[in-house]
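From the shared-data thread, chain only:
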Amino acid sequence: MSGVVGAKLAELGLTLPEVVPPLAAYQPAVVSGRYVYTSGQLPMVEGKLPVTGKVGAEVTAEEAKELARTCALNGLAAVKSVIGDLDRIARVVKVVGFVASASDFTGQPGVINGASELLGEVLGDKGVHARSAVGVAVLPLDAPVEVEFQIELVQE
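Structure, as tokens:
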């Protein structure tokens, strides 16, 4: 991968994965005007979830934070699939993270920091965003974490 963002990914030792195929009737990402909206990205690695369950029960907060990083990397792959070049990103506007949580788990923000921190590492100031971190009862495929985001593109 070339460009500034590609060089930063390489410097961090990261490779964009293949876009995770949709699990239902939706697209991984769509462009509308100057914005790209991703669908919720699960922490799929080579077509499967590395771990399942609730955070605070079967999955630790630290494991879930790493999974959120994977979600963000999958989201960047989805964005690249519709815009071609990640250097077209002007900024990340909003990140929404969902954490399948045990009933007494309240550390959702720390988990979603995994996604936020990855976007900051890869995109620098363009990765700073507004965010929601929400605890939910269950996610598709019993995934511990799901992340979606909205990206603004550079005006051409």
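The longest strand covers residues 89-100.
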